[in-house]
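Quick illustration, no need to memorize.
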Amino acid sequence: MKGSFEQMNATTAYQGIFPAFYACYDDVGNLSKSRSQALARHLLAQGVQGLYVNGSSGECIYLSVQERKDLLEAVMEAVGGQMTIIAHVAANNTRDSMELAAHAEKLGVNAIAAIPPIYFRLPEHAIAKYWNDISSAAPRTDFIIYNIPQLAGVSLTSSLLTEMMKNPRVVGVKNSSMPAMDIQVFRDLGGGKLTVFNGPDEQLAAGLMMGAAGGIGGTYAAMPKLYVKLYQLVADGENGKAIALQNEICRVIYALVGAKGNMYAVIKELLRRKGINCGSVRAPLAPLFPEDTKQVDLCEKMIKAAEADYLA
């Protein structure tokens, strides 16, 4: 990989494209080990650099602690050691989060990640303790802060990040706030020691140009090769082409959210058409409806057209 990324980011294990891994269910809605492993192997073959397991796109808030352990075990068995694995371990209480963190370290993941506690609005010192307690349960594993204020209800501030940087295991931030400038702010606060991932899929090109080491995204698995290409275009300094491809990706994203069913149900149907059966989504997420077929057809057509234009 040439370009500015290697100069800006010392930790190459955390560079590149990291699809947010989906929870894979059998036909009656139970977690499926075989389908999870098929998806992991499929994504490995697409040339992505790693996977982000048990995050928002993995429906983590609808899975039990045991299901999250089972899913991570399936992924590690399938592709562990062949790509970078980041396990999101946050639950809405410290005890479960620490249990998931210790389990992830035992499996040998590269890093664990955590959103802040949700629902109750906690002061910064309580959020820092929550994260540090989680990290203490995996003392030999890197820790990545997950900043997603639009869903968690709390933002990562400069003062909170400065406090967390006292923890030597903190190596980065997954930044899903909408202002791309936050990436530059967090990088500067880290003094070159923090890896920052871009979160919003719609602004990956902008995030990379602001200094993100790579991206973690919920739509990456729907069109992984397009995201890998986008990353490479920015790394090669071909920003004009990168912006054009980003615009095409954004149009696909707008189509993915245009069905009556949940976006992840649409993506899972696209994957099923490629021979990767992930099942549906877990309630209360809405599954596909019969009238969504035309929207899925449109998404499939748009992705194929973009691949023909940019991957030829």
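The first strand starts at residue 16 and ends at 19.
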